[in-house]
Amino acid sequence: MMADVSAEQPSGTARWTFLGSPRLIKVVLLVVVATLVLGPVIVLLRASLAPQDVLPFETSVFTFDNFRQIFAGDDTVKLLTTTIVYAAGSVLLGVGAAAVVAWLTERTDMPGATVIRIFLFSWMAVPPLVIGFGWVLLINPGNGALNVFARSAFGLTSAPFTIYSFWSLIIITAFSVLPTAYVMLGGLFSNMDPQLESAGHVHGGRSFTVMRRITLPLLIPGILSVGIFMVMIVVQAFEIPFVVGLSAQIRVLSTRVYLLASPTTGIPNYGLSSAFGVCLLGLACLLMWVYFRCVGTGEKYRVVTGKAFRPRRQKLGAWRIPVTCLVFALFGIMVLPVLMILWTSFTASYQVPSLAGFANLSLDNYSRALASPFAQQAIFNTLILVLASATIVMLLGSLIAWFSVRDRGPAVRILDILAFAPTAIPPVVMVIAILLVYIRTPVYGTIWILVLSSVTVQLAFATRTMTSALTQLHKELGDAATVCGAGWWTSFRRITLPLLRVQFLSGWLFVAAHTSRDLTIPLVLMTSSNVVLASAIWMMWDFPDLPGASAMAVLLVLGLLTVVLPVQILANRGRRGA
Amino acid sequence: MLKVSHLERTYPAQPGGAAVHALKSVSLSVEQGDIFSLLGPSGCGKTTMLQCIAGLETPDAGRIVIGPQTVYSRAERIQVSASERGLGMVFQSYAIWPHMSVAENVAFPLLQRGRNPGREQIAQRVDEALAMVELAGYGNRSATQLSGGQQQRVALARALVHKPRLLLLDEPLSNLDAKLRDTMRIELRQLIKSIGITAVFVTHDQIEAMGISDKVALMRGGEVVQVGKSRDIYLNPHTAFAADFMGSGNLIPCTISDMGGDRAVATTPFGRIRARAAAGLRIGDDAVLVIRPNAPIVDTRPANAQGDAAQITGNVASVTFLGEKIEVQVRLPGGYDLVTTMNTFDAPAEGQEIHLTLPAERCIIVHRDNAAASTVRDAELAGVAA
User: Fold this and answer.
1) The domain B249-367 is classified under which CATH number: 2.40.50.140, 3.40.50.10490, 1.25.40.20, 3.30.390.10?
2) Alpha-carbon span A136 to A340, nearest angstrom
3) Which residue numbers delimit the ABC transporter domain (chain B) (predicted)?
C-alpha cells in the first residue's frame, strides 16, 4: 500500500500553475475592479473642480466655480425638492400597492395568486422606456387614446388626463416601482414564521387584532427598508423622468446631469454636469446610509428565517371577488401602455385605436425594421452587449464573492467595498464619468464601451447575488476538492461554479434583461457605430417614427419575454414543489 | 509518520471580540499505521489542528512533517499547499458534491495534479474503492439519492481511492443516528486497519474516541492535556478534566494528607480514602479524588475492609433506571452525594443503608484544574466556534 505513495506524489509543478494561484487572481481582481469603479469616480470629482468648457485631463486648474454656480441660485433648491418629492411620492404609492398585493397573494386565499406572481416577476422584461412611450401615446392632451375616448364618450371639450403633470410622472413611476417592490416583499411575507401569529390566535387574539398587533408590526421594518431602497432607486432612475418628465418641464437631478452633458443645442458642459453628478452621488450615499441604518434595526426582528414555511392564509370571505377584480384592474392599467405600443406597431402611421382601424393593421413596420441595416446593426450590437456584459459581470462577481466569503484579509475588504460602491453611484452619473475617462481612447464609440459600462453598473448586483449564494454553500465542499489535490482554479471551476449554477444563471438573466432594456448607458455613450435596440428605439421615436419605434420596442419586449417568462414559470413550479 | 511540533495558531480579533489562541505550542507524534484521535470539547482546537495538518489552515508557527516531507515549517519557510500534500480527508458534512454522480465524486482525486491514468484504470480503481466501502454498483447514482450512511461511505471511498499517505477524519460519525454510528464506528476501524493506513480522527465523543483509536490526544483550550491509549487515560488521568472528559466519575475535592510509594491518603468530606496518586502531587496539596461510578463494591451488609480498601456507609438518596444498569446516588457522611452504578437486578430501595468498599487501586487522586483560567479560555474559544 505505502509503496504506492511515491508514485502518487507530484513529479514537479507545471510551468503555468502560478497563474492559478489565488493570490495572483486576487491582485488582478483588485486592479480590474479599482480601474472600473475608482477611475470614473476620480475623473468625475476632477471634472467637477475643473473649468466648464474643457475636459478634465486638459487642464490643471482647480476651481469651485461649478459648485458656486449650483448653490448660488434658487434653481438647485427647487431641483432637489422636486427630486425628493418625486421619489418619495412614487415610492409611497408603489411600495404601498406592492405591500397590499404581496399580502393578498402570499397570505390570503385570493384566486389567481400564481398568475399575479409570474406577471410581476416577468415585468422586468418591459423596459421603462417602452412604458414611458406607451403612456405618452395613451394620455397626451392632444391625441392620447384615453383622452380621445373620454372626449367622445362623455362629450368633454378638454382632455381629462394629461401626461405633462407632476402627478402623472409620479403615478407612472409608481407603476414601475410596484413589481420590484413586490419581488422584494413577497419573500418577506411568505417566509414569516406562522407560529408567531398562531401564538397570537391561541392566546385569544381575533384575526384582525392579530394582524394589527402582531403581523403588521413584525413586517414594518422590512417594508420600511424596501421603501428606502426604492427611494434610492428612483432618485437614480433616469428613463421615465427623461421620457415623461422633460416634455412637462419637470426636472430632476438625474435628467439635469444628463442634459448638461448632452444638451440638444450648444456644447456639453461637463464641469457643471459633473458637479451636479457629485451632488446626486452625495444624495444617493446619504440614502444608502439611511438604508443600512434601517436594515440594522430591522435585523432585530428576524422574522425571515431560512426555513420554508407554509404560512396560514387569511380567508377573504365576501371581499374575495371585489378585491380580486380590483387587483386585476390594476394590472390591466399596467398593461395598457404595452398594448398601446403593440397597436401602434401594426399601424402605418400613428392613429387612435378603433374597430375600424383593425382593417388597416399590417406587419409592414416589422419587415421594414428588420430589413434596415440600422436595425440589424442594433440587434447584433444588443446581442453582443447582453451576452458579453452578463457573462463577464457574473464571472467577475463570482470571483469577488469567493474571495469575500472564503478569504478574509484587508485586500479583500477593499475589494468588497469597491464592488459594492456602484450601488450608490447613479448609473447616469457613472456613465458620464466613464464617458469622460474614455472619450479620447479608441474604446469610445465601440460597443465595448457599453459592455464596460454595463459591467461596472451591474457589478454590485452580481457580487451580492453570488455572495449570498456562496455563503449558503458549505465550505467543506471546496475544501474536499483541495485535499483531493485540486488546485484553486480547478476547485472553483469544477466544484464551486457548477454548484452555484442556478444562482449564476438567474443572476445572468437578471443582468441580461436589465442591460438590454437600459437606455441610460447607450444614450450617453451613443455614436453612429454602437447603437443598440434601446437607443435605436429612442432615435426612431425622436425622429419621429412612432410605428417603427413601437415595432422595435415590441421586438425587444418579445425577445426579453421569451427568456424571462419560462424561467419565472419554472421557478414558480419549483417553489410549489419545495 | 506524522510529527507536529510547537504548532501555534491565533485567530485575529474579529470586530467586537478578542483574538483567540486556538493552538498553544502543540506537539504530537503519530506512528505509522495508528489510528490517532484528537478528543476534546468544542473549541478546544482539535479541528484547527486537523485543518493545519490538511493545509486548509495556515499555522502561525511550528512545524508539521508527514512521512519524509516537511509540509509546514515556519523556520524554514516551507508551506506545501493542501492540494500538494497527498492526503485523504472525510469531512463532517461528508462534502459529497451533489452535482456529480457517486463514481465522479470518487474519481475526482485520481484526476488531479495533472494525472490521468486512463479511463479503464480510473473505472477499475473507483470500483475497487466502492467495493471496499460496500457500495459496489452504486457508481451511477446521483450523490443526492444516498442516505447519510451511504454518503459517508462515498466520502470514505473518495478519501482512500488515490491511496493517500494519511487519512484525516473530521467528526465523521457525528451526523449519523445513534445505532448507525455504533456500527459505522466498528466498520471504520476494521477498514482502516485492514488497509494499514495512518489515520487522524477528530471527535468530541469519548466513546467514539475510545472505540476507534489506538491512541488519544485529549485537548483543552488549545493545549494537549494528555496523550496515551484510551485505557491509560481512563485509568490514570493526570487532571480532573481528563478524568471527567474520559468517562464519568465522582470528582471530590480533597487534601493529600499522607503519601507513600504511588499511594496517598486523601482527606475528603466523608473521611480519609487511600488511593493511587498522579505524578507530581505532594503532601498538603489541594487535589481531586476520582471515584468512577463502577469502582465501589456495593453491599447491603457491612463487609470486611481488607488491606488497601476503604469502607464507607451511606444511604440511598435516589435510584435512576437506565436499562442495563441503574445509577444510585448514595448520601455519604458529611452530606456528599456519590454516584455509583449497579446491576439492574440488584436495585436497592430508596433510603436503604448501603456499604461501599473502595479498593485503593480503583481510586486515583489527580491535579486540580486551574478553574479560573480555563473558564475564561473556554468562553473565548466558544465564541470563535460560534
Assistant:
1) 2.40.50.140
2) 10
3) 2-246
Give me B173's grid cell.
460519525
Query: Which residue out of B11, B70, B90, B108 would a mutagenesis test of the A interface target, given it has the greatest number of A Cβ atoms within 10 Å?
Result: B108
Nearest to B99 among A10, A482, A498 (CB): A498
Residue from A24, A408, A483 whose CB has the most chain B CBs within 10 Å, to mutate? A483
* Residues on chain A touching B114 (C-beta within 8 angstroms): 10, 14
Q: Chain A contacts of B92, Cβ < 8 Å? A: 476
A334 and A372 assigned to the same domain? no
Q: Which residues contact B308 (CB under 8 A, 6 or more apart)?
A: B263, B274, B359, B360, B361
User: Apex CA A518: angle with CA A512 and CA A522, to 5°?
Assistant: 110
Nearest CB among A5, A484, A499 relative to B165 is that of A5
Tens-binned pLDDT, residue by residue, of chain A (578 aa):
333 333 333 433 444 445 567 888 888 999 999 999 998 989 888 888 888 777 777 777 788 888 888 888 778 888 889 999 999 999 999 999 999 998 888 888 888 888 888 888 888 888 988 999 999 989 888 888 888 888 888 887 777 888 888 899 999 999 999 998 998 887 777 776 666 776 766 776 776 777 777 777 778 878 888 888 888 889 888 889 998 888 778 888 888 888 888 887 777 888 888 888 888 888 888 888 887 777 665 444 444 444 445 566 777 778 888 889 999 999 999 999 999 999 999 988 878 888 777 887 888 889 888 888 888 999 999 999 999 999 999 999 999 999 988 887 788 888 888 888 888 888 888 899 998 888 888 888 899 999 999 999 999 889 988 888 888 888 888 889 988 888 888 888 888 888 888 888 888 988 998 899 899 999 989 888 889 999 999 999 888 888 889 999 999 999 988 888 888 887 777 655 43
Among candidates A5, A10, A495 on the partner chain, residue whose Cβ is nearest the Cβ of B97: A495
**Chain B contacts of A2, Cβ < 8 Å?**
165, 196
CA distance B228 to B166: 20
Tell whether B97 lies on the interface with A, counting CB pairs under 8 A: yes
* ipTM value for the complex: 0.76
Closest CA to A226 of A86, A89, A87, A95: A95
Place of cell 508514485: A7
Helix (H) or strand (E) run with residue A577 in it: helix A546-577
CB contact B113 to A (< 8 Å)? yes
Other CB atoms within a 10 A radius of the CB of residue B247 amount to 19
User: Where among A341, A373, A403 does a domain terminate?
Assistant: A341
Interface check for B282 against chain A (CB to CB < 8 A): the answer is no
Query: Which residues 444-503 of A are in CB contact (within 8 Å) with B?
Result: 474, 476-477, 479-488, 490-491, 494-495, 498-499, 501
CB B198 within 8 A of CB B213: no
Do B2-235 and B249-367 fold alike per CATH?
A: no
Residue A293: which domain range? 97-341
| A30 and A142 co-located in one domain | no
Report the alpha-carbon distance of residue A141 to residue B251 in Å, rounded: 92
Architecture in CATH of B2-235: 3-Layer(aba) Sandwich (3.40)
Q: Inspect the interface and report whether the beta carbons of B98 and A14 lie closer than 8 Å.
A: no
